[in-house]
């Protein structure tokens, strides 16, 4: 993965040190922040007011577009001219190595083919469903139940969901359970080292010039020293994961690592796979679910409709929805899509033009220019969604009760085209399973009410200040009869 998941690499990309146009002025002086809560809200505003739906931040050498024709052009038609490029892969190279997120060309092609074969099968999807259901049943719901109705008990739902998705992606990817969401909320050295390593890697992008972090790395000082130590810990833990998997046996196992072990013995390659998949499946899902529950709390009428739909599909004596039942819930599916329209976990994603080019809207792109498509802004474009684009309205995705998708180039929350997310179906299933299980059993109330969500800079959209909630139980269910193993 590259710094697509990062919202702060601006200074790093600076091509011109000064430009006097209004946009660059506002960017350089941060005066945009007087009016907007988030940089992505300011960009959305600029893109909404641009006739071509494309803008230029000259000081960053960055062309930003919310035009679906441009997005289709760069992600599909002229895919080869818009690779991730060297600037991003250098920044995340120490952490991600040559993992799928961080490479272009043949190396990417090879990993993509192998990974899509593994992730595309029905058997792996139902394997993932079993993992997610067990984590919900034995950890997530008992944890929510343990605080429900307790005077003054406030839970940071974002932190809970990060632990939830970390357990799931580790179990799915390596068949090993870090147990982060146990009732005691234990410290996980792996999760912590991983957090620090991603944070510091993204922080490299904030250096005034790449030379700054490169010199710090050369002399092993400051944040680079910390990053090296964090990556060292991640490496040790990733190797331990691979060792354990080997010891426990992998030939008959269903997890992703076992499947890759069957085709390669290259330790470094396996390490890069381990890291890439944690990054792919953890923060994205946690971010998407955090925003979803914020929207449920601020739009209770939608939560009611999800419960109504589930009551029609799930039998009265049945506790959890089956894989097939989750697939039948069209309104829920629409609500999840609608939530990621307004709050995509990956708010923008950049590529670097290999050669001079002209985008479909007539924008000239000079070789080497950073070209960014912006899912966050695209979800807020009147030209794409109509005058009610700022309203949270799952119904916009339904026709006669059935979910109707739009072109992925209008809704690139999972990217689109040649490099579309490989975990999309799995992520949607995970989100829907959590949503329906939690909403049927609990009411989630916000501690702080605000009209908009704010985001911290980082590799994915993390809600600033977390999501403090108070949980109340709608109906009691007997605790699970067996313990989790
Ligand atoms: C709501 C959750 C998720 C969202 C919004 C999301 C979004 C994305 C995006 C935007 C990309 C493109 C990144 C880039 O190329 O710069 C991507 C790539 C990818 N995602 Fe996801 N993702 C999610 C969950 C997952 C999960 C759960 C998995 C794995 C189980 C996964 C596996 C991957 C992989 C392997 C790629 C790399 C594809 C390639 O480069 O060819 N994703 N995802």
Automatic annotation (TrEMBL):
Keyword Cell inner membrane: no
Domain of life: Eukaryota
Residues the record lists as binding heme: 421
Transmembrane segments: none
Cofactors, names only: heme
Coiled-coil intervals, chain numbering: none
Keywords carried by this UniProt record: Heme, Iron, Metal-binding, Oxidoreductase
Molecular function terms, GO-annotated: heme binding; iron ion binding; monooxygenase activity; oxidoreductase activity, acting on paired donors, with incorporation or reduction of molecular oxygen
Family under the similarity heading: Belongs to the cytochrome P450 family.
The protein's name: Cytochrome P450
């Amino acid at each position: 993965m590259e710094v697509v998941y990062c919202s702060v690499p601006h200074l790093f990309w600076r091509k011109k040190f000064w430009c006097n146009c209004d946009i660059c002025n506002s960017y350089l002086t941060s005066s945009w922040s007087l009016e907007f809560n988030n940089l992505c809200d300011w960009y959305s505003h600029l893109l909404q007011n641009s006739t071509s739906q494309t803008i230029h931040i000259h000081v960053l050498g960055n062309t930003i577009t919310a035009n679906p024709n441009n997005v289709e052009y760069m992600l599909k038609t002229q895919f080869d001219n818009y690779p991730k490029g060297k600037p991003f892969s250098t920044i995340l190279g120490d952490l991600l190595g040559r993992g799928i997120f961080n490479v272009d060309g043949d190396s990417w092609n090879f990993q993509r083919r192998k990974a899509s074969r593994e992730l595309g099968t029905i058997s792996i999807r139902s394997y993932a469903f079993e993992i997610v259901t067990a984590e919900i049943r034995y950890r997530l719901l008992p944890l929510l139940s343990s605080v429900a109705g307790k005077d003054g008990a406030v839970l940071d739902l974002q932190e809970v969901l990060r632990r939830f998705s970390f357990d799931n992606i580790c179990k799915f990817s390596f068949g090993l359970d870090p147990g982060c969401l146990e009732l005691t909320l234990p410290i996980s050295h792996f999760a912590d080292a991983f957090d620090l390593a991603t944070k510091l890697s993204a922080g490299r992008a904030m250096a005034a010039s790449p030379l700054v972090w490169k010199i710090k790395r050369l002399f092993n000082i400051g944040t680079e020293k910390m990053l090296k130590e964090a990556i060292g810990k991640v490496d040790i833990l990733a190797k331990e994961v691979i060792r354990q998997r080997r010891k426990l046996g992998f030939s008959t196992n269903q997890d992703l690592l076992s499947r890759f072990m069957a085709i390669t013995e290259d330790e470094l390659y396996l390490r890069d796979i381990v890291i890439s998949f944690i990054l792919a499946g953890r923060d994205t899902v946690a971010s998407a679910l955090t925003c979803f529950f914020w929207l449920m709390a601020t739009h209770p009428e939608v939560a009611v409709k999800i419960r109504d739909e589930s009551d029609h599909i799930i039998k009265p004596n049945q506790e959890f929805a089956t894989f097939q039942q989750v697939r039948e819930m069209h309104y829920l599916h629409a609500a999840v899509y609608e939530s990621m329209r307004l709050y995509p976990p990956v708010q923008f994603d950049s590529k670097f033009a290999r050669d001079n080019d002209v985008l479909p809207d007539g924008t000239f792109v000079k070789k080497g220019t950073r070209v960014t498509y912006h899912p966050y802004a695209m979800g807020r474009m009147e030209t794409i969604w109509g005058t009610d684009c700022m309203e949270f309205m799952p119904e916009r995705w339904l026709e006669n009760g059935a979910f109707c998708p739009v072109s992925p180039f209008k809704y690139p929350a999972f990217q689109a085209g040649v490099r579309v997310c490989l975990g999309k179906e799995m992520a949607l299933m995970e989100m829907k399973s959590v949503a329906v299980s939690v909403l049927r059993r609990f009411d989630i109330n916000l501690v702080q009410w605000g009209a908009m969500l704010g985001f911290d800079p980082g590799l994915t959209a993390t809600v600033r200040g977390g999501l403090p909630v108070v949980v109340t139980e709608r109906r009691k269910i007997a605790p699970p009869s067996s313990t989790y193993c």
